[in-house]
Amino acid sequence: MRILITNDDGINAPGLEVLHQIATELAGPRGEVWTVAPAFEQSGVGHCISYTHPTMVARLADRRYAAEGSPADCVLAALGDIVKFTPDLVLSGVNRGNNAGENAMYSGTIGGAMEAALQGLPAIALSQYMGPRTAGLDDPFDCARVHGASVIRRLLDHADWSQGDDYRLFYNVNFPPVPGADVAGLRVAPQGQRQGSRFAALPYDAPNGRRFMWISGGSQQATAREGSDVAVNLAGYVAVTPMRADLTCHASLDRLSAALDTPLGQAAE
C-alpha cells in the first residue's frame, strides 16, 4: 500500500510522527509512506487553498516534503507534482486537539482529507482529543498511537469507499481524551455541536495604539447532544464520522422546493 500523509500542525508536529508510525504499519514492509505537510502551522484554515499566490515546496528527505501552504495545498502539490502515482490512501493528522463538533468546520486537518476525497481518493482525518486525562501523559497521543492502525483497518474493511457521481465520502476519526488502555470502544457518530461554546474574537490594543484581535475557542469539555461525536469522545469512545464535501441540507429540499419553486413574482399557495 502507498499512503500519502499530511496535517495542519506543520511538518515538525509530533502528531505527524504518530501518523507516520500508523501509516508505516498499515503500508507494510513492501509499501511506501509519502509525507507532504505544511512548512508552518496551518490550524484553523479549513479547506483553504492558495489560489491567488504560488506555494513553495521543499524536499526535506526521501518521501518527505514541506509546502508553504495549507493541508489542501499539500494534497494538491503531492498529486500534481511530487508523487508519480495515485495513492491508495490519504491520511491527515494526527491533529493535536479534537476536530469533533463545530471544530470540524474550521479544521485544516479535515480540509486535507476533504481535498483528497474531492480528488477521488480514499481519505481519513485523525485527531487526538486533549483533556485532563491526557495532560499528564508522557505521550499525549497515546490513544491515537495505540489504536490508530486498528481503527483505520476496520474502516478500510467496512466503510463505504465507492466512487459514484456524488461527492465521495471521507471519514473523520477523533480519539478520546484518555490513555489508550482506557478506551471504551468505537462508535460511529454524527457531528455534534457543543452547547454554549463558541469561537470568539478577543480585542487587543498594542502599545503603538493599533487594534488587533485574538481568536479564541470555547470550552472543549462542553456537552453536546447524546450520541454525537463530542459526546462519545467525552465518554471515552473513538468517534468515527462519515463526511462529504456537500453542505446541502437534503432534509429541507422537498419542503423548501414546494414553497419556493414558483415563477418570480408569483407567491406559492
Automatic annotation (TrEMBL):
Binds 1 divalent metal cation per subunit. Keywords: Cytoplasm, Hydrolase, Metal-binding, Nucleotide-binding. It is found in: Cytoplasm. Pfam families: SurE. One of its GO terms (cellular component) is cytoplasm. Gene3D superfamilies: Survival protein SurE-like phosphatase/nucleotidase. Its EC number is 3.1.3.5. Residues 3-195 form the Survival protein SurE-like phosphatase/nucleotidase domain. GO terms for molecular function: 3'-nucleotidase activity; 5'-nucleotidase activity; exopolyphosphatase activity; metal ion binding; nucleotide binding. It catalyses: a ribonucleoside 5'-phosphate + H2O = a ribonucleoside + phosphate. A divalent metal cation binds at D8, D9, S43, N95. InterPro entries: SurE, SurE-like_Pase/nucleotidase, SurE-like_sf. Its cofactor is a divalent metal cation. Nucleotidase that shows phosphatase activity on nucleoside 5'-monophosphates. Belongs to the SurE nucleotidase family. This is 5'-nucleotidase SurE. It comes from Paracoccus aestuarii. The lineage of its organism: Bacteria, Pseudomonadati, Pseudomonadota, Alphaproteobacteria, Rhodobacterales. The gene is surE.
